[in-house]
Amino acid sequence: MESQGFNVLNNIIDFMFLVDIFVQLRTTYYDPLTGDEIxxxxxxxxxxxxxxxxxxxxxxxxxxxxxxxxxx
Length: 72
Fold this sequence. Notes:
It is a single chain. The mean pLDDT is 91. This protein starts with a helix and ends with a helix. Helix 1 runs antiparallel to helix 3 (53-60). It has one domain (4-71). By secondary structure, it is mainly α. The longest helix has 21 residues, at 4-24. 65% of the residues lie in helices and 6% in strands. Strand 1 and strand 2 (37-38) form a beta hairpin.
């Protein structure tokens, strides 16, 4: 059985991954071809969504909590 402290820590970590998604959606980046810094929010969003977004979403999903709820 998992302790309450572990569950709290696990939820905090999952929340931090969720916050990271919102930060990444607003963080400028340098275009690798031109070297220009990209400030356009739509371009930043599209670059992130077609890049690492799915990895970050999968890291945010609390699979252990979902498994616990299903098996109870």
